[in-house]
Write a structure and sequence with these properties.
By secondary structure, the chain is mostly helical. It has eight helices and no strands.
Length: about 150
């Protein structure tokens, strides 16, 4: 019984201890969107600042490899609508923070974020949590940024 109570307390502490942090200002070229749902601290750490300036080609190549090996291509293409939306231009349409949360916490996003809810309603398929890390997200973002040019 003590183990069950301890596990319950730990679960509650984790649930209430997770949270977003301060929201970043969107660039004027981005489509307005609601704030992303609260996410674990890894997402907050990854969302510190969007990559900018010249494309980091090595990081973009790493992102391309992740895009293929993590199975993203099963649902997404750059220019073509599949099970999920095409991703060309996504880094111009959504904030780095939003993309980070969508990759790391797709269930939470589709439950709480209006833009993610709309995508789920349009495509009818829940994005799968692929177990990405904050480093994976930065590489994937750089690849998507490269493809959005």
């Amino acid at each position: 019984m003590k183990t069950l109570n301890g596990a319950l307390l730990l679960a509650l502490a984790f649930a209430f201890g997770c949270g977003g942090g301060e929201q970043t200002q969107q660039a004027s070229t981005e489509t307005p969107e609601a704030a992303p749902a609260a996410a674990p601290s890894e997402a907050a750490a990854a969302a510190t600042e969007a990559p900018s300036g010249p494309i980091d080609e090595a990081l973009a190549e790493q992102g391309k490899q992740l895009f293929t090996t993590r199975g993203c291509t099963g649902c997404h293409q750059i220019d073509t609508k599949l099970i999920g939306p095409p991703l060309k231009g996504v880094t111009n349409q959504r904030s780095y923070e939003w993309i980070t949360h969508m990759i790391l916490n797709p269930d939470s996003m589709t439950a709480n974020d209006p833009a993610a809810k709309a995508l789920l309603a349009e495509y009818g398929t829940q994005m799968v949590n692929m177990g990405a890390t904050a480093d994976d997200v930065r590489a994937l973002y750089e690849y998507l940024r490269q493809q959005s040019q």
